[in-house]
Write a structure and sequence with these properties.
Layout (H helix, E strand, L loop, with lengths): L9 H68 L14 H12 L7 H5 L4 E8 L11 E2 L2 E2 L6 E2 L6 E11 L6 H4 L12 E11 L5
Parallel strand pairs: 1-4
Antiparallel strand pairs: 1-5, 2-3, 5-6
Helix pairs in contact: 1-2
Length: 207
Amino acid sequence: MVFPDGTRDKRDGRWRRWILAARRLRRSRDGSAAIEFAILAIPYFLIIFAILETFVAFIAEQTVNSAVDTLGRQLRTGNITYNQARSTDKTATEFRQLFCNEISFLLTCDADEVATPNRLWLDVRTFSAFSAMPTTIATTAGSLDTSSFAFTPGGASSINMLRAFYYWPVTTDLVRPYIATIHRPGVSSNSDYLIVSTMAFQNENYP
């Protein structure tokens, strides 16, 4: 504001300084927002990756469960047999191939995996009674103990157990210490989540 005598109102200078200060404050707030985002972005994305990792592992677990249900039903009804001199007889490798066919859309289970178990391990045995079945998972040197695993299901009316184990790789560092409690043979550190699915049943009295 200019007075008649040509002097300026001192309040003009104060207003101008206040406006400049407000502009500088807004710029500083923009900078702080960028710094805050940089600080929070890493843990935020780690949490997102952890959620996705857990979700995919859950889907993989359900996939293995579904395969166990499907093939266990075929064993129970006599659609898959072993050493019975029937057209439905399967070898251990053929049974592994059938299992891989059920899970290969999500889990790694190629021809090499069928021939030489690395991630997928199957245990199909017959028992004299349900009480004789193992109730724990045996380990050795931090890995799954597969020394007793076999493919020897029984015939009609026999009592059987089908167990499937899959080493699911855990990639997110935030999740690995909590769910990766085992490692594959030949791997020194725990980097896998062991998916386990079990089905105990008595075969039908099929002809």
